[in-house]
Amino acid sequence: MPSDFLKQCSDIVGQQHVLTGSDMDGFLTDWRKRATGRALAVIKPALTEDVAQIVKLCVAHKVPIVPQGGNTGLVLGSVPDQSGQAIVLSLTRMNRVRSIDLLNDTITVEAGCLLQQIQTVAHEQGRLFPLSLASEGSCTIGGNLSTNAGGTAVLRYGSMRDLTLGLEVVTPSGEVWNGLRGLRKDNTGYDLRHLFIGAEGTLGIITAAVLKLYAQPAAKLTALFALNSVKDALSLLELARQRCDASLTGFELMSEFCLQLVEQHYPDLSLPFSGRHPQYVLMEISDSESELHAMAQLEAVAATAIEKAWAADAVIASSLSQSHKLWAMREHISMAQAAEGLNIKHDISLPVSCMVDFLIETDALLQHDFPGCRMVTFGHLGDGNLHYNVSAPVGEKYETFLQQQEAINLCVHDNVHKYAGSISAEHGLGALKRDEIKRYKSETELAMMAAIKQALDPLNLMNPGKVI
Question: For residue 394, with 0-12 CB atoms within 10 Å meaning exposed, 13-18 middle and 19 or more buried, which class applies?
């Protein structure tokens, strides 16, 4: 079957776009280099019609499909398992911007478009596509949609669910659903797009999307605050919301240890303060009026925060290069962690009101059970999403420490659940958290998810072994 199947795939997409052997290597290993799967082939279609034909062919031959964009996922959701029975369907050739409607403030793009490409095209048309991620130069919009990506601007613009008006999807039977409607109001039945956003390719293959655009801000300013506690950070957040309202775009928390790692591994990135502080907040406002107005807002926030002792110090970037340097410190945290050694990562979300209690309690639990472990805590505090990572004690081999991953995950995730949070805020479940989620979702919720999967993908060919 494989040779006949692959010949038919070649007839659809062209022989040069059916990769086998060592040509598949870059598609089979996950972004963090933790797992490498096996596949029959990597298929690279260029058109929606090609995707539909490939899916129908896979249905006929009972071949599983692993959809893949930039392969920047963090939960083993975009790589195949060890069976070698699946194909990887790479959508990177489907990278066209189909249309832009400036009056409607929408852009229609194919799933293989890089996020940075969409940002650039929007900017050239005097518009803003606000999704911003550290991997924006390599991740695709299809992957962003499949994980409901959030990033640093959720506070103002929302996640991919909020930024998407319509989808084009190839269903598990190989039919094409054209839902590319640029409507902000459409109450004509079930909102099917939300089934596919965040489903990680388990219900169908997103091939195109209609996305919202926004006016470019007249000014964008960044400030870095030095703080004594997360509680002070939440007081600063409340103040910023009151003073800046919709202008508040980003509010990123970074612990002292995070920035120590950045300075250690990237010496050209250093804090602009004379002393050290337990916590830092990177705040961004996007003003529709003027830079002068934005500066006045930030200065007022900084003055009040220092007066009330919520902030020990603050620096407002006075140039674009200074702003980029402040953001570079935030964006290099993950790379600095990788340079330091393997660590145990958590992508969690909580009600903002529970954040202080959760951190105090969970930090203490981890130190009691795993003495000397180091917390690398950073993330999107404004929308309740933290990357709550645990690094090995000084001197302990990282491979040895990772043997405690299951116990550490249980400690962290049980406490997340206690505070009505989520064990996956924006990375998804993939294969990494597929089984663990059963501990935290009710039987009713899991049954509804299974019923949807069975109804749309009865043969279980769409990214099997992921999510559910």
Answer: exposed
- Is the pTM of the predicted complex or chain greater than 0.90? yes
Q: How many helices (H) and strands (E) does the chain have?
A: 17, 19
Report how far apart, in Å, the C-alpha atoms of 16 and of each of 8, 19, 79, 204 are. Answer: 13, 7, 21, 25
Tokens of 319: 């140039």
Amino acid code (one letter) for 376: V
**What are 248-296's pLDDT values in tens digits?**
999 999 999 999 999 999 999 999 998 999 999 999 999 888 999 999 9
Q: Determine which helix (DSSP H) or strand (DSSP E) holds 240, and give its type and residue range.
A: helix 230-244
CA 322 to chain centre: 26
Q: How far apart are CA 8 and CA 2, in angstroms?
A: 10
Residues 6+ apart with CB under 8 A from 157: 130, 131, 163, 214, 249
H-assigned helices in 332-354: 333-340
Nearest to 198 by CA among 170, 173, 171, 162: 162
What are the tokens at 67? 């959809």
Nearest to 223 by CA among 102, 323, 86: 323
| CB atoms inside a 10 Å sphere around CB 393 | 11
Burial class (CB in 10 A: 0-12, 13-18, 19+), 257: middle
Which amino acid is located at 78 in the chain? S
Asked if residue 147 lies in contact with residue 426, where contact means CB atoms within 8 angstroms, the answer is yes
d(CA 76, CA 436): 14
* Residue 274: Cβ within 10 Å count: 7
DSSP H or E stretch at residue 325: helix 320-331
CA distance 450 to 444: 10
